[in-house]
Design goal:
- Helix 1 runs antiparallel to helix 3, helix 3 packs antiparallel against helix 4 and helix 4 runs antiparallel to helix 6.
- The protein has one domain.
- It starts with a helix and ends in a 5-residue tail after the last helix.
- The model has no long low-confidence stretch (mean pLDDT 87).
- The protein is globular and about 55 Å long.
- By secondary structure, it is mainly α.
- Helices cover 73% and strands 0% of the residues.
- It contains six helices and no strands.
- Keywords: Membrane, Transmembrane, Transmembrane helix.
- This is TMM60 protein.
- Pfam families: Tmemb_185A.
- InterPro entries: TM_Fragile-X-F-assoc.
Length: 134
């Protein structure tokens, strides 16, 4: 299943728009919805991305694929998987805090987001300053 760039952009904008509309309705107190319902577009989009990523990673496990080819690509996909799981953990913790299911401090809610941002900065620095020596 291959999506063109235009389709991916349209899908991203659609889910973002739906999430923002639901968020505005909740913040204006027009809709008495649960916070977990507000984040459904985010979770649907993340689920689509996770499934596509896992399918691509699983495709490397089939027979006849040389494990040495594309090991850098697998590391990048593993980082993407970790980043998606950190984002999911942050969204779940945030919804639980906003819905008052937990009495966790707000600083603890943001730990997955901070880990994601630090990992992203390391990845960016690695991509900018890494020089291949052949």
């Amino acid at each position: 299943m291959r999506m063109s760039l235009a389709q991916r952009v349209l899908l991203t904008w659609l889910f973002t728009l739906l999430f923002l509309i639901m968020l505005v309705l909740k913040l204006d107190e027009k809709a008495p919805w649960n916070w977990f319902l507000i984040f459904i577009p985010v979770w649907i989009f993340d689920t689509i991305l996770l499934v596509m990523l896992i399918v691509k990673m699983a495709g490397r496990c089939k027979s006849g694929v040389d494990p040495r080819n594309g090991s850098q690509n697998m590391k990048k996909k593993a980082w993407y998987l970790i980043a998606m799981l950190l984002k999911l953990a942050f969204c779940l913790a945030l919804c639980a805090k906003l819905q008052r299911f937990t009495t966790m401090k707000l600083a603890y809610v943001f730990i997955p987001l901070w880990a994601l941002l630090i990992g992203g900065m390391i990845e960016l620095g690695y991509n900018i300053f890494y020089v291949r020596r052949d």
